[in-house]
Write a structure and sequence with these properties.
Blueprint: H1 2-8, H2 12-21, H3 29-34, E1 40-44, H4 52-55, E2 66-70, H5 81-95
Length: 96
């Protein structure tokens, strides 16, 4: 799959560069702490662009946030049918 080849080009070094250049310059902590709506943080287990270990830290900003890691998935878990099915299931369960 061509998407797999593209995602293979992103490394930890690339992520660190993006983190230093962009992510660390913007503090969204105050906003995340004030959110009063349900938030589902959906991320892929094997995401090399935005590693799962980083996504899991978002919960420290908002205790109501639901972490949803999709196994064996990369940066765009919703592009795979397995990922979409899992996302649909968690959304359905969360909205009931």
């Amino acid at each position: 799959m061509i998407l797999d080849k593209i995602l293979d080009t992103f490394s930890e070094e690339t992520f660190n560069s993006i983190k230093q250049s962009y992510i660390e310059k913007y503090d969204v902590t105050p906003l995340l702490k004030t959110l009063k709506i349900p938030v589902i943080n959906i991320f892929g287990e094997k995401d090399v662009r935005f590693p799962a270990r980083v996504s899991k830290t978002f919960r420290s900003y908002n205790n109501d946030l639901i972490d949803f890691q999709i196994s064996n998935s990369g940066h765009f878990p919703f592009l795979q049918s397995v990922g979409r099915k899992q996302i649909y299931k968690i959304l359905k369960e969360s909205l009931l």
